[in-house]
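Section 5.1 Outputs to date
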Amino acid sequence: MKPLLITDNFVALDDTNGARSLSVDANFWDSLEKGEFGDFSRLISFYEFDGDWETWEKHPNGEEFVYLIEGEVEFILESNGVTSDLIMDEPNSFIIVPKDTWHTANVRKPTKMFFVTPGEGTEIKPR
């Protein structure tokens, strides 16, 4: 066993408290969508953003943990016709996006972020 980089490997958590790494390459999202990684309930991932998100997303099967490593981002949350904005500008701050809440982000300064996402059933729509 050797340490892995979160930039190259995400982590899939299952309902039996198991964890396994998933190699992130150019085909990662296609493979995920096709179910090639098998069943898991949460995905631990890392992203860098230098521009606003192009889509909205929501997770009907659970809350999403979003952790800011560095940068500044405005999260926009929409639920039941009510929109709220949350500014994350302090490293080590986090939010928990409520289950079934549409969300997107405006990137004010390039960011590095860590996510724990209930991936199954995720919905995406254009912004």
